[in-house]
Amino acid sequence: MKHWQPAGTVYGCLLNFQREWDLWAPRMSQDPHKGPPKAPVLYVKSANTFNPSGTLMLQDGVQEVDIGATLGLVMGAHGAPHSAVLLNDWSVPHDSYYRPPVKFRCRDGYLGCGSPPVPWATLDTSGLSITVQLNGQRVQTVHLSELVRPVARLLADVAEFMSLQAGDVLMLGTDVLANGQRPRARAGDTVCLTVPGFAPWVQTVQGESA
Questions:
Q1: Is 19 among the domain residues?
Q2: pLDDT per residue of the chain (210 residues) written in tens, 0 to 9
Q3: 3 occurs within a structural domain
Q4: Is 1 inside a domain boundary?
Q5: CATH no. for residue 125?
Q6: How far is CA 146 from the centre of its chain?
Q7: Cα distance between the two ends of the chain
Q8: Tally of structural domains, the chain
Q9: Within a domain: residue 166?
Q10: 22: closest CA among 8, 10, 32, 36?
Q11: How many CB atoms lie within 10 A of CB 176?
Q12: What HEC string does the chain produce?
């Protein structure tokens, strides 16, 4: 499975890291929501986003993209994960993370995949960290111990309102830096994600004229 890509629907999860939750908490009581979310806030990465290649092409005047390092739970039978995969949930920088606009998250090629899945039975996700490198320099470390909803709770909470089918992928969420932003890449940059036990994930960003 040299160039793996999802076989089912891919779901992202917002506000699932403690730092971003804490940054948004003072505004969660404001309109239109008037309170923190009681269930996981999910969104869909459509099939046009699946990108197992080594390149992300920027289009329509986009100058930079947010890096969204995450693990995806690949579902087996009965809504239980059978493997996990290293993914980059690219997005165009935008202000709201309550209801992410499709045009910022579902552009062509905006789900970096390709690295082979790792069997679920071999993993302890609570102890894993994702290292994000930009042009060879570490810019972020994503600690899965800092999830608001750890894997078991996230799966249980999602199961209360929807069923996950075999082949679906549930991403655990993406973390932010201390300033509330995600690391950003521009044309010419190379991003590398690494996690112990997983094959490295690498993509280079190219501009429209490349």
A1: yes
A2: 468 999 999 999 999 999 998 988 887 777 767 777 888 989 999 999 999 999 999 988 899 999 999 999 999 988 889 999 999 999 999 876 566 678 899 999 999 999 999 999 999 888 999 999 999 999 999 999 999 999 999 999 999 999 999 999 999 999 999 999 999 999 999 999 999 999 999 999 999 764
A3: no
A4: no
A5: 3.90.850.10
A6: 15
A7: 28
A8: 1
A9: yes
A10: 36
A11: 20
A12: CCCECCCCCEEEEECCEHHHHHHHHHHCCCCCCCCCCCCCEEEEECHHHEECCCEEECCCCCCEEECCEEEEEEECHHHCEEEEEEEECCECCCCCCCCCCHHHHCCCCCEECECCCEEHHHCCHHHCEEEEEECCEEEEEEEHHHECCCHHHHHHHHHCCCCCCCCCEEECCCCCCCCCCCCEEECCCEEEEECCCCCCEEEEEECCCC
Expressed as residue numbers, the domain containing 106 is 10-206
Query: Letter for the amino acid at 61?
Result: G
Q: How many CB atoms lie within 10 A of CB 7?
A: 14
Which pair of structure tokens corresponds to residue 206? Answer: 């190219």
